[in-house]
Amino acid sequence: MDVMFRVSIVVGTIMSASVAVADEQAAYDRLLAKPHTVAMLQAGIIGLPSAPISQSQRGGSTFLGSIGKGDATIETGLDVIFRVQKNWAFGAGILFGPRPTSDTQYGGTSGLPRTHSRSYWYWGVEARWIPLHYRWLEGWVGLHAGEVIVGDRFNTDVGQPKPAILGSRQVTIRTEGFATGLQAGADWLLNDHFVFGVVGRGDLWVLPTHDLELSCSSIGDCPTLSGAVVAFEIGLTVGYRLPL
C-alpha cells in the first residue's frame, strides 16, 4: 500500500510538471510566436580599433575607461523590431554617440589651443533569424545595413568673444558613407510586455576616399576617417512589446 501511494505521488508530480510545461509553452506561443512589434532602447559602447581621433588620444573614453588603441565611446539608440513569426524579425533603428571622445591638445606644437572631437550617427534596417528558443530566452543572429555619418568637430579655444554674425570658432566636417555588418544577441522576456537583452555587432564602414580636400575648412581642418573602417558595438537593450 505504501509503495502504491509513493507511485501515485511520483505519477502526479510528473503529470503536474507536464501540465506546467504545456501551459508555459502555450503562453510562449501566445506572446512570442505571433506577429508583434518591440520598441527597444539600447545603451553600450562603440569602438573603432584602428581609428584613434589623433596620435595623442588613443583608446577613447567610456565608463569602462579607455579601450584598445583606436577610438571608443558610449553609444545609445532606438530600434523598432517587427516579429513576423516565430523565427524571423525585421526592423529599423538609429544609433549615435551622445558624448564623443575629445582631444584637448589638438593644436600640438603650434601652441594654438584647439579641441577636436568625432561623433558617429547610424541609421538603417536589419533582419534577424531566431533559431534558439529556451522557455523565455531567445538567441538570434542577423544582418544590418544603412548610412553612417561621421562628424569631425574642431574648436579654437582662443581669442575674444565675438557676435555670431562674425563667424564661429567651431567647424564641423561631416562625412557620409555606407555601413553593413553582422549582429547577434539574446533576449529574455521578463513579462507580457518588457524584454531585456544583449547585442553585439561587427560593422564595416565604407567612407569616401576621393576629393577629401573639398570637405576641408579654410584653415585646413579635414575629415579624419576615409575608406574602409571597422567598428564593433556591444550593448544592453530594454524593449516594450506591442501586440498587433
Distance between the termini: 55 Å
Provide the structure class: mainly beta
User: What overall form do the CA principal axes indicate?
Assistant: elongated
Number of individual domains: 2
Helix content: 10-25%
Rg: 25 Å
Entry keywords:
244 residues; mainly beta; Porin; 2 domains; eight-stranded antiparallel beta barrel; 9 strands; elongated
What does this structure look like?
This protein has one helix at 2-31, and strands at 36-48, 71-85, 88-96, 101-103, 114-134, 137-156, 170-189, 194-207, 227-243. Residues 10-23 have low confidence and may be disordered. It is mainly beta. It folds into two domains: 1-31; 35-243, Porin (Beta Barrel). The chain starts with a helix and ends with a strand. Strands 1-2-3-5-6-7-8-9 form an eight-stranded antiparallel barrel. Strand 5 and strand 6 form a beta hairpin.
